[in-house]
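User: Show me sequence and structure for the first protein, then do the same for the second.

Assistant: Starting with the first protein.
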Amino acid sequence: MMPVSLNRIGQIALAVRDVDRAEAFYRDTLGLRRLFRFGDLTFFDCAGVRLLIEKANDPANAGHGSPIYFACADIALTVSALEQRGVAFESQPHLIAVMEDHDLWMAFFKDPDGHTLALMQEAPKGFRPHPGP
């Protein structure tokens, strides 16, 4: 018998207060591809991992999920584009860790329900983001 080994996340769920508002944010502001909607559940594709946005049973529980980190190729350009769409970043891109083979940069923001989201770029050693337009 083959040993069981989990190594791929199929879906992440976030509870929100208003599914229509959250759907518009993730689709229109962040540009995620919506897969389908079923009642108070809406699903997005994140490069093969589904993001499920669902109505919170208790609105007090909305916004208390784990952070989601979106990988991007150019963090400064992505921050600039999202700011133009109304996203308010808590800080500009900053160096999180100097790794052996790359530098890790991140910038944090929140969705309309207060979920912490982040952009991350695994950049070449010595990378410095170019300033926005």
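Switching to the second protein now.
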Amino acid sequence: MPYLPWEQAWQEALFGEAGFYRRPEGPAGHFRTAVHAAPTALARAVARLARTVGCSGVLDLGAGRGELLTALARLSDEGEPLRLHGVDVVARPPLLPPAVGWSRADGGIPYAVFAGALVVAWEVLDTVPCPVLEIGPDGRPHVVLVDAGTGRERLGGAPADADLDWCRRWWPADGLEEGDRVEVGRTRDAWWEGHVRLLARIGGGVLLAVDYAHTRAARPPLGTLSGYRAGRLVPPLPDGSCDVTAHVALDAVASAGHVAGAAAGTLVPQHAALRSLGVRGDQPGADELLDPAGLGGFTWLLQRVTSR
């Protein structure tokens, strides 16, 4: 098979016709997220957040098989019901409650579901494919190429100017050594910025991103590109058999959202965010959500978008 830039191989591996996120077992067959650990506690926290920020609904982007939305639907008798809608690359899950709306990401999403919603991107940005660069023997960054069938890599040519511009601001290559890597977050920034601009056009709302993240003060020198298969961390192989993920430069995402018109927002550890929303360690499964060394180590970015 030909060697491809990681960004291209990654896109096909996750979202192509035979991509990982289209597999029948769904993401839950391969890795555990917060909603699997403590669905009721998490749903109550998300519902409380939505009502606190004045949102009438929750729109879950990258909703998997609707696990969070199903948990939220079960809380319909706890206060004013929220309008619920999910988006993913698969058809509507068969066990999704009737009150929950659903759209395929590749089939067009009705703008109306965004209006006044808390738009949730839970572990979504880490799956947005991005260029992977590596410092070569010449001391310069090169695009990393990968064979999708074997996972073998080699260095390609020089990065695009837009990627180098992003690196200069958010992940400088100065001081990096041969073999060090940069995961260029430009594509994640653009994904987020697009949703900010959409919300601004149709009446505003609030965006929430939750992901493993890092900031400019502490970028990982070897990058974070990883794979998950059947509950285990594995080498990233872009053949559709495993998840491919990389942590998110969430400070850059926040800046992109602000430039696009959102409020500045702040980065908050998940354990602190959930405690502020009433999650306690004595609730079933909540201790896992609050563990700073585990799921509690995720970072939250919340940005409000007003109508233009």
